[in-house]
Amino acid sequence: MSEIKKLHLTAFMRPVSLHSGAWRYPGSYPDANFNLAHLKTFITKLEAAKFDAFFMADHLAVLNMPVEALKRSHTVTSFEPFTLLSALSVVTDKIGLAATASTTYDEPYHVARRFASLDHLSGGRAAWNIVTTANPDSAKNFGLDEHVEHGDRYKRAREFYDVVTGLWDSFADDAFVRDRESGVYFDPDKMHVLNHKGDDLKVRGPLNIARPVQGWPVIVQAGQSEPGRQLAGETAEVVFCSPKDLAGAKELYRDIKARTVAAGRNPQHIKILPAALIVVGDTVEEAKGKRLELDTYVHYDTAIASLSVSLGADASQFDPDGPLPTDLPETNASKSSRLGVAKLAADEGLTVRQLAQRYGGYAGLAFVGTPATIADEMAIWLAEEGADGFTVTFPFLPQGLDDVTQKLVPELQRRGLFRDDYGGTTLREHLGLPRPTNRFFE
Amino acid sequence: MSEIKKLHLTAFMRPVSLHSGAWRYPGSYPDANFNLAHLKTFITKLEAAKFDAFFMADHLAVLNMPVEALKRSHTVTSFEPFTLLSALSVVTDKIGLAATASTTYDEPYHVARRFASLDHLSGGRAAWNIVTTANPDSAKNFGLDEHVEHGDRYKRAREFYDVVTGLWDSFADDAFVRDRESGVYFDPDKMHVLNHKGDDLKVRGPLNIARPVQGWPVIVQAGQSEPGRQLAGETAEVVFCSPKDLAGAKELYRDIKARTVAAGRNPQHIKILPAALIVVGDTVEEAKGKRLELDTYVHYDTAIASLSVSLGADASQFDPDGPLPTDLPETNASKSSRLGVAKLAADEGLTVRQLAQRYGGYAGLAFVGTPATIADEMAIWLAEEGADGFTVTFPFLPQGLDDVTQKLVPELQRRGLFRDDYGGTTLREHLGLPRPTNRFFE
Predict the structure, then answer these.
(1) CB atoms B186 and A71 under 8 Å
(2) What interhelical angle do A284-296 and A352-361 show, nearest 10?
(3) Cα(A34)–Cα(A67) distance, rounded to whole angstroms?
(4) B76 vs A contacts (CB less than 8 Å)
(5) Tell me: domain B8-282+370-431, CATH 3.20.20.30, correct?
(6) Closest CA to A86 of A60, A123, A57, A50
(7) Partner of A414 at 20 to 30 A CA spacing, among A247, B89, B157, B414?
(8) How far is A86 from chain B (nearest CA, A)?
(9) CA B72 to CA A394: how far, in whole Å?
(10) If you average pLDDT over residues A62-91, what whole number do you get?
């Protein structure tokens, strides 16, 4: 009896939501950034719905937008991921805990140690989202005037990964004998001193922590650039990506799986999970209405700037409540971007204001519909190899999360597209990933 | 009615104990380094006993002793402090959570952020133990061949403190207005951009986190060197120190309080808490017997090396089961150290083996006796201004902790020397420390 292929679902979280207008949505928790009680509720519901992981997005700077937009933003301040996920590990048993950590602005010894500690605390549920930190404002918080150049960041990231995984392998799984009689706490023959000396990093080791429960915490990678795809193929076990549509997703899926094979790895051991905003309604119209309402909470002044960028034209000159003009001035902006805006305006009959608020709110891939229509779409993405599952973002919290966990997930379960219960206790088990062998010990 | 002065008590923890033989003591939990369940039990008991704080000691390297000693050590591997304390914050409500973080091998933006996050998660219970990381092996895990020189470490530490506290003050306490109607999430006039440019550090800010619940997490400092004492006088709110006896403690107490006053601070706002091993018995003899038994679990080969250092002579030549020879060869070792060993041997009638195991186990200040005799001693230290309380280390766990919380603490409470219950919810309230004003906002 062949088993139906199943989706993997992770929740990509900012405490208030990633949508820039979400904190003003009726029933939202604007104070969730520093209110642990709300986060406990969210993760408990996600675990009850059998999500693979709770994934904490992160930034390393506040000043990444003009002050007029900044003052309206709920996403630039919140709990730090390691401390938050460690706290949340105690109120959950099964759901994975993915933290973002930068290879550009941190030390591999610290990063290896914190993930190993989180993995031990949580009984094998940690994942490391490797980021090279694209935001140039971050550099200024870490002693630099200029951001580290893209190629250099990826080169260091690759070496950083080697060092961190090498540090996780510092001790054999059976190194800690703790033999009261002989007084030997661990076998020094089962301890490896890394002695790494590379172009960017020099780290002796060993790590001052036993090998993680999962061997290595799960490796997540989000880059879509050429070096990002290559890094994913060589190292990632989960890819968090942002294709615009199924065609783009299939191209990315094929490319990253091919790079994985080329790197000598099993393509089953890398899960491609496109980011998707999910808005669930009892009817398609209701879902669309929720999204339109949500977008109205995006401030027009900041929204119009986003639209202007996408159009390559000053959209503040247009009538906000009229349709998008068809006679846009010639510019050297990307034609495909401009065509995309025009298509969206036509498809959904949006005014300039609504278009702007869409681009200022959340412009990425979205599934907006009933549990049945969304399940249909997801099944197609899974069957056509555009995705192994999705990195879910919620339009607003808590209601948008409840809509997914209480309405969409049961529909996916009925169709056999999502697990009815966890089959194991570690994140690797949820994702069907093998436990890595220790490179220094059998 | 004048109130009796009370002791402050913090628990200085390694998961298995700081005593090097403790993991072999009957009933111990040798696996506690990576077993959260044990740590949850410990902190729950400490909170029930109304301890001020749970204080997680830390290291940044494994290779800090010869391999023959290393393989017997349970103290070089364990949970990382931030992840552990964040997890423990969820199972407690009142007890403070003190983490060690290095100013030499970390970035102020990360350190400020993690402590602020822990303070928010825990409702105002975080404390930062500022260390400059004395262990030269740590340097090798962070890209350096040589350890950073002592004076340079303290210079950077002082600047690091200024940056971290400045980052904590990034937002006024009332900056986050979250006004749904106007769409303003925070008032940018209540955000301060630090723009720090100093000799060792350059950090723009602001921190991407609201001001901590306590304003600043409590500042703990452990140095006893000249620059360490000065740093404490200028910055510390709790001093963790290691005087050998009451006379030494009084000198240190006077000196640090004087430096505090000289720095323009209120001497009531710095609490001097000497480290003390506490061994409780129903009789003094029973307590001494527990300690002697504990010392027998220290391996002789490693113990004798510690004794040789203290004597400035090769103690492995002596009869292990005889008394300390009186005709020690002349050396240029410290006379006071040698006299201290001879006095200990005479006072307690210890053999060479027992002496060695004492020095290899835990050679610092210890209170060994009944609840009544220990309370007597503590009362004297408090009255004579040798201490404002103690940084308690347990000889073995869990029994040594139970002895303190179930036997000593009730005795101290009966005498009015220790609180019967917490008077507030934040660590600052437990310690009687004011909430710092924001240097940039009223």
Answers:
(1) yes
(2) 80
(3) 22
(4) 208
(5) yes
(6) A123
(7) A247
(8) 5
(9) 50
(10) 93
Count CA atoms closer than 13 A to B289's CA, side-chain side: 7
Over chain B (442 residues), the average pLDDT of each successive run of 10 is 82 94 96 97 98 94 87 94 98 98 96 98 98 86 86 93 98 97 96 97 97 98 88 96 95 97 98 98 97 95 87 91 87 78 91 94 95 98 98 97 98 98 98 97 86
For A:26-85, CB contacts with B below 8 A are: 30-31, 33-34, 36, 59-63, 67, 70-74, 76-80, 82-84
Yes or no, beta carbons of A188 and B71 under 8 Å apart:
yes
Candidates B34, B121, B180; nearest CB to A87: B121
The residue in chain A having the minimum alpha-carbon distance to the alpha carbon of residue B121 is A36
Dihedral sign from CA coordinates of A425, A431, A434, A439: negative
DSSP one-letter string for B218-254: EEEE---SHHHHHHHHHH-SEEEE--SSHHHHHHHHH
Distance between CA atoms of residues A368 and A403, nearest Å: 12
Sequential DSSP letters for A367-391: EEE-HHHHHHHHHHHHHTTS-SEEE
Question: CB-based contacts of A213: which residues, under 8 Å, 6+ apart?
Answer: A119, A120, A123, A124, A426
- CB-based contact A57:A86 (threshold 8 Å): no
Contacts of A33 in chain B (CB under 8 A): 210
> Are residues A87 and B84, on separate chains, in Cβ contact within 8 Å?
no
Rounded average pLDDT over A311-337? 85
Beta bridge partners of B197: B202
d(CA A407, CA B145): 58
**Residue A81's Cα: distance from chain center in Å?**
12
| Mean pLDDT for all residues in chain A | 94
pLDDT of residue B187: 97
Residue B55 forms beta bridges with which residues? Answer: B12, B98
First-residue to last-residue Cα distance in chain B: 35
Instruction: Tell me if A121 and B209 make a contact (CB, 8 A cut-off).
Output: no
* Domain ranges, ordered by start, for chain A: 8-281+370-431, 285-361
Amino acid at A376: D
Instruction: Look up the ipTM and state it.
Output: 0.96
φ, ψ of residue A88 to 5 degrees: the values are -70, -25
In the chain, the amino acid numbered A345 is A
Q: What angle do CA A70, A362, A370 make, to 5 degrees?
A: 145
CA–CA separation, A145 and A173 (whole Å)? 43
Chain A residues whose beta carbon lies within 8 Å of the beta carbon of residue B110: 106, 110
pLDDT at A1: 43
A102: left (phi over 0), alpha (psi -120 to 50) or beta: beta
Please give the biggest Cα pair distance in chain A.
Answer: 86
Report chain B's C-alpha Rg in angstroms. Answer: 23
Structure tokens at B72: 């017997």
Q: Which residue has the tokens 């006896």?
A: B245
The answer to whether B67 contacts A188, with C-beta atoms less than 8 Å apart, is yes
CATH of the domain spanning A8-281+370-431: 3.20.20.30
Taking an 8 Å cut-off on Cβ atoms, the answer to whether B83 and A121 are in contact is yes
Name the B residues in 137-166 with CB < 8 Å from any A CB.
Answer: 137, 140-144
Task: List the single residue in A with minimal CA-CA distance to B299.
Answer: A183
Determine the residue type at B17: S
List Cβ neighbours of B306 (8 Å cut-off, separation of 6 or more). B356, B359, B360, B363
State the greatest distance between any 2 C-alpha atoms of chain B, in Å, as a whole number.
86
Sign (positive or negative) of CA dihedral A109, A112, A113, A114: positive
From the list A232, A209, A237, A245, the residue with the least C-alpha distance to A339 is A245
